[in-house]
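Our consortium's second objective concerns turning raw sequence data into structural hypotheses that experimental partners can test. To show how far this objective has progressed, the report includes one record in full. It was chosen at random from the queue rather than selected for favorable results. The single chain below, 125 residues long, was entered without modification.
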Amino acid sequence: MAAAALVGLELESGLRVISILEDAGIVLKVAIWMATPEFEEGRVVIASPSLDQSQPLRAYEMVAEILHGKFTQAAPPILILRMRDPFVQKLRQLFGKAASVEGMRLGGQTIGNRFVLDAYVYRIQ
């Protein structure tokens, strides 16, 4: 039940993150809100060719710079995955050609290399 209460807040914050990043010119190929056994709380998970850095810290710095000052409270936790990540590749393989995936829910399954407890899809291309 507690997780369900968090979902609404996270989904709204996640949508705001995505909008801000896209307004800054970041083309997101994958954007979802996801809860996994790895994290106590959900994460906004994104993947973009422009965030595929040889040093992952640089991608986080870039996103942090773009989001700086855009939230009155802390921005939601973000997980940036490379386009080659097995999870990203499998999502794109399964759903990348669908007419519309926005609002789709995933959960209780392993996709690529990650077990998804719950997920809300913003975008998969």
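The partners drew two points from this record. The longest strand covers residues 118-124. Residues 2-23 form the longest helix (22 residues). Both points have been shared with the crystallography group to help prioritize constructs.
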